[in-house]
Specification:
This protein is of the alpha+beta class. It folds into 2 domains: 5-24 and 156-348, NADH Oxidase; 36-155 and 355-366, NADH Oxidase. 42% of the residues lie in helices and 15% in strands. The chain has 14 helices and 11 strands. The chain has helices at residues 5-12, 22-28, 34-42, 49-57, 97-116, 169-175, 185-204, 206-214, 219-225, 235-242, 248-251, 257-271, 286-305, 324-334; strands at 69-74, 78-83, 119-125, 135-141, 180-182, 216-218, 230-232, 275-281, 309-312, 340-348, 365-366. Strands 3-4-2-1-11 form a 5-stranded mixed beta sheet, covered by helices on one side. A 4-stranded antiparallel beta sheet has the order 5-8-10-9, sandwiched between helices. A two-stranded parallel sheet has the order 6-7. A hairpin with a 3-residue loop joins strand 1 (69-74) and strand 2 (78-83). It is globular, with a radius of gyration of 20 Å. The relative contact order is 0.20. The structure holds flavin mononucleotide. Flavin mononucleotide is lined by residues 61-65, 98, 101-102, 105, 156-157, 159, 312-315, 356. Flavin mononucleotide binds next to helix 5.
Length: 370
């Protein structure tokens, strides 16, 4: 998460804002974690059609940017996708539902990128049953480019307040095929309250908050060394780190100024939301979760193409005891006729935010069966 200047100033609170000068300014202009962002530049630079498609797939959205994918190349035109079981969120995603959705986003982005390169993909989900590979894919010449693919490099999860302006009717109609879109004030108000309450529960429950804190990367050096998780980078956040105002310890202390300001930033952001997008599936099987991820990715590319911002807000959909009331309420509001809400996202007009880090493709290739 790269916080904007506005947020950063808020984090400092009413205290002194020190202008960076001289050596400090020089330090601050060199804070971009180029190594961690290199996979974005390397996308599409591979000759093997599978590697070419995978180099785009790994830019897919995924929970806490854990990048839980591992791929084994098979023969000359096949591959198998595995869930790297070391990459899980046991506190907030105990059944790997969200992790599996992220793997669905990865698969859809792989297929879209293959199509641009004139490759089709035959895919079998869970070829060995639920505990084996996530998918087996065979590439063949002849795929068709999908216009959504042109937005892959511009797609983001936008974790910012959205503008206070309604979404055009044309945009809503265009997004209808990907998700349920809610713009009516009664539902939007109810969802603002739900997402805020759910966020507070996750933040104030020690073990679930600790799961996020453990995944925080503080500053350029940490982000480059471990290009995943929650990246706290950029000149302003790094200046707070240098000043000792933003540290792992401050994030672990709900009484610290930094922690309280963070809560205020989220309250403001979650309420600055004119609309929501929701993806439901008939059930909650691993196949449903993969399909939800594939659909979310397409939705996120479509919103990108329309100049709209999209931000998953998943807390109310998480399956742990403290969240049970919010989970039930989410389903009462959004799935009263049955089914499982797999994705809930804020939708609106927001800024273009920076790219998030990724592990290089080579770090995700494995030899045989995982
Ligand atoms: C299943 C799923 C759940 C997510 N839930 C949240 C969430 O609750 N809050 C949030 O800020 N981002 C959420 N995200 C977005 C990820 O944090 C984001 O995809 C990741 O950091 C990579 O950033 P990018 O999408 O901008 O490339 C979720 C993404 C997925 C696929």
């Amino acid at each position: 998460m790269t916080l904007s200047r506005r947020k950063t100033l808020a984090l400092i609170g009413g205290g002194t804002i020190v202008a960076a000068t001289g050596a400090a300014a020089g330090f601050l202009t060199t804070r971009t974690p180029h190594d961690a962002l290199r996979p974005w530049a390397l996308a599409g630079q591979y000759d093997d059609p599978r590697l070419n498609a995978l180099s785009y797939a790994l830019l897919a959205p995924n929970p806490h940017n854990l990048q839980p994918w591992q791929v084994a190349l098979v023969g000359t035109n096949g591959l198998r996708l595995f869930h790297d079981k070391k990459r899980r969120l046991p506190q907030t995603d105990p059944f790997d539902r969200q992790i599996t959705i992220g793997l669905g986003c990865f698969l859809e982005q792989m297929v879209l990128a293959a199509g641009v390169a004139g490759q089709g993909v035959d895919m079998t989900l869970f070829p060995d049953g639920p505990d084996g590979a996530i998918a087996e894919a065979k590439f063949y010449p002849g795929g068709q480019p999908d216009p959504l693919a042109q937005h892959i490099l511009n797609r983001r999860s936008c974790k910012e307040p959205f503008e206070n302006r309604p979404i055009s009717g044309d945009a809503i109609t265009g997004l209808d095929m990907f998700a349920d879109i809610y713009t009516d004030s009664e539902t939007v108000t109810a969802l603002k309250e739900l997402t805020w309450e759910a966020w507070l529960i996750e933040t104030m429950t020690e073990r679930t908050m600790q799961e996020s804190i453990d995944l925080m990367r503080f500053g350029k050096a940490q982000i480059n060394a471990t290009p995943d998780g929650i990246d706290l980078g950029g000149p302003f956040l790094e200046s707070l780190m240098v000043a000792g105002l933003l540290t792992r310890a401050s994030q672990e202390n709900p009484n610290s100024t930094g922690f309280k300001q963070g809560v205020e930033i989220y309250r403001e952001m979650l309420h600055a939301t004119p609309a929501y997008a929701v993806i439901k599936m008939p059930n909650n099987t691993p196949q449903d979760q993969i399909n939800a991820g594939r659909q979310w990715l397409r939705l996120n590319l479509a919103t990108t193409g329309m100049g709209l911002a999209l931000h998953p807000v998943s807390q109310a959909l998480q399956e742990y005891p403290e969240m049970a009331g919010q989970y039930d309420l989410a389903h009462a509001i959004l799935a009263s006729d049955g089914g499982t809400v797999q994705m809930l996202g804020r939708l609106g007009y927001g800024p273009q935010t920076p790219r998030t880090p990724r592990w290089p493709l080579e770090a995700k290739l494995i030899d045989g069966q995982s």
